[in-house]
């Protein structure tokens, strides 16, 4: 049985005070929520303070990105070891905004995933097609390429530290959500790719999250699908009440 994951990607929002206010509101709302892993991903500058606020709670801390080297002359970058030192257990890698705006490629995603796993982090590995790719009937080709190249040379043991997040780019921050059946179709395909790369057991164990304008109103229908194991939540994770509602319904 795969334990569902509800992760909140705060993106470029929340100063230290605002982040602590959000966490302070969230903690009591989900303190009794069982059967689901809850993760929040603030900006780098507040990770340490949020880690202190989450200590001893049922909420895990994630970063939004990492670099593939441990240290060196890489101005502006942050390593996986530094993220663990700041209190992180998870890291988001390959988000479409990183790919779109910051030149992230399947090859750099692969290097980051390997570095994060080596350091001991659990990876939230993002994949997804653009609107142009979907309309051009390229969705499955894109997903196969991103999964295959992103996980290149990972052992089946290393794969256990990976959670896949399928986020159709056309649904991120647009208010549009893939229909339940569209999302299920993509998730089922991704699970099949994992089975082909590894084996049926690895595919069955892989948790695959949906992301893209997830709200309390649509999480129930998504979670009812056989191959959807949770959600990577954007805007709705910036308010304690809406994120808590998603976490409670995401089982």
From TrEMBL:
Q: Does the keyword Iron-sulfur apply?
A: no
Q: Which UniProt keywords apply?
A: Cytoplasm, Gluconeogenesis, Glycolysis, Isomerase
Presence of the UniProt keyword Oxidoreductase in the record: no
Task: Enumerate the catalysed reactions.
Answer: D-glyceraldehyde 3-phosphate = dihydroxyacetone phosphate
Under the heading InterPro entries, the entry gives: Aldolase_TIM (IPR013785), TIM_sf (IPR035990), TrioseP_Isoase_bac/euk (IPR022896), Triosephosphate_isomerase (IPR000652), Triosephosphate_isomerase_AS (IPR020861)
Q: In which pathway does it act?
A: Carbohydrate degradation; glycolysis; D-glyceraldehyde 3-phosphate from glycerone phosphate: step 1/1; Carbohydrate biosynthesis; gluconeogenesis
Which positions does UniProt annotate for substrate binding?
Answer: 9-11, 173, 213, 234-235
The record ties this protein, via PROSITE patterns, to: TIM_1, TIM_2
Q: List where in the cell it is found.
A: Cytoplasm
One GO CC annotation: cytosol
Q: Which SUPFAM superfamilies match?
A: Triosephosphate isomerase (TIM)
Q: Name one GO biological process term.
A: glyceraldehyde-3-phosphate biosynthetic process
Q: What is its EC number?
A: 5.3.1.1
Any one GO MF term held by the record is: triose-phosphate isomerase activity
Main location as per UniProt: cytoplasm
Q: Which residues form the active site?
A: 95, 167
Subunit: Homodimer.
Entry's family note: Belongs to the triosephosphate isomerase family.
Which NCBIfam families would you find in this protein's record?
A: tim
Q: What does this protein do?
A: Involved in the gluconeogenesis. Catalyzes stereospecifically the conversion of dihydroxyacetone phosphate (DHAP) to D-glyceraldehyde-3-phosphate (G3P).
The name on file for this protein is Triosephosphate isomerase
Tell me what gene encodes this.
Answer: tpiA
